[in-house]
Automatic annotation (TrEMBL):
The chain crosses the membrane at residues 184-208. It comes from Halioglobus japonicus. The lineage of its organism: Bacteria, Pseudomonadati, Pseudomonadota, Gammaproteobacteria, Cellvibrionales. InterPro entries: PilN. This is General secretion pathway protein GspL. Keywords: Membrane, Transmembrane, Transmembrane helix.
Length: 336
């Protein structure tokens, strides 16, 4: 008998209750007041009380919003509230345990009893549950007298119990819960679609990689067959690299005069012109006229491509003109 009982236990846990624990965990994750999902997706509620109007979302106060759901806060004298301490072992069956507790402690008839509950705390061994019990007839009489509503499903009924707001079940909360359920389904559909797209992308990527692998294998086989030609091409490539290196050295020692002339033309602008341009290696001899030759010389000095810019002769005013004559010696820096 001992071995038969222990066959269902793993590391001290009764495996027969795994399904109920799993369902309870998902219920808390999606439907509990402190659920991050519900905090984002739950409908806002406009709460009317003797103190005025306030707005709540997932059981917490929120800013003034456009709320499609409304609730009425019952006064404390219509509410029987208790703070229950229960072992963690009953968490998977908490709704049933709460129903038994209500049946055992309600002073009202079964048809006239309405209740709500909310988990307000937990530790390593126990749960703390705020339980509120009201009389349906007394609650609806209060709503009819204070707010003129005779439809029990037109609004939700809330109460204050042990410092938190508790929703009394069986009234207008079904509309809000249905909207929340539809939002959960919509978000689940989006996540499912995203997962399908992700899996499709992985499948396409794997297919492309397979095609690429086949192409690489074919290239490898072709390369192995043409090893001799590849060796000849490597030798020719080495010679070409040497020729390119020599050409680069020549370009460094003898830059393109056309390129430098175009650069100077762009820098000089419309208020100056070049009369004479000569270039020997990396040295440029430049003559011309400008409205402000000093500014032009300063502009050329600031160019990183030129290592030095100096005046070969003093800048002087051209006879009969508003322009200044300049004669500059320019030495180019490292190419790049």
């Amino acid at each position: 008998m001992f071995e038969s009982e222990q066959n269902w236990e793993l590391f001290g846990y009764d495996m027969r209750n795994v399904g109920r624990h799993f369902s309870a965990a998902w219920r808390d994750f999606l439907w509990a007041y402190d659920s991050p999902v519900r905090h984002r997706l739950d409908e806002a509620v406009r709460l009317q009380s003797a103190d005025g109007v306030s707005f709540y979302q997932a059981g917490d106060v929120c800013d003034d919003v456009s709320a499609q759901c409304s609730a009425v806060l019952l006064p404390d004298d219509l509410v029987l509230d208790r703070l229950l301490r229960m072992p963690l072992a009953v968490e998977s069956e908490l709704p049933s345990v709460i129903a038994l507790e209500v049946n055992a402690n309600s002073p009202f008839s079964a048809d006239d009893t309405a209740y709500g509950w909310r988990v307000v705390g937990r530790d390593e061994q126990n749960l703390q549950v705020a339980l509120a019990i009201v009389s349906r007839s007394a609650a609806m009489t209060y709503v009819a007298q204070q707010y003129g509503s005779h439809d029990p499903h037109a609004q939700e009924l809330w109460v204050n119990s042990n410092g938190v707001k508790v929703v009394i079940e069986g009234f207008g909360e079904g509309k809000r819960l249905e909207r929340y359920r539809r939002r959960l389904l919509w978000v689940s559909g989006l996540l499912g679609g995203a997962a399908l797209v992700f899996l499709l992308a992985i499948a396409i990527s794997a297919g492309l990689k397979n095609i690429e692998l086949g192409a690489v294998q074919e290239i490898a086989q072709t390369t192995q067959r043409d090893t001799a030609n590849a060796s000849q091409m490597r030798a020719a490539l080495g010679q070409a690299n040497e020729a390119i290196a020599v050409i680069n050295e020549l370009q460094i020692a003898h830059p393109s005069a056309h390129l430098e002339l175009a650069r100077l033309t762009a820098l000089v602008g419309d208020d100056a012109y070049i009369e004479r341009f000569s270039m020997n290696g990396t040295n440029i001899d430049l003559r011309g006229r400008a409205v402000d030759a000093s500014s032009l010389m300063q502009l050329l000095t600031e160019q990183g491509v030129y290592r030095s810019v100096s005046a070969a002769s003093p800048i002087r005013r051209a006879p009969g003109q508003e322009k200044e004559q300049f004669h500059l010696k320019i030495s180019m820096g490292e190419p790049g």
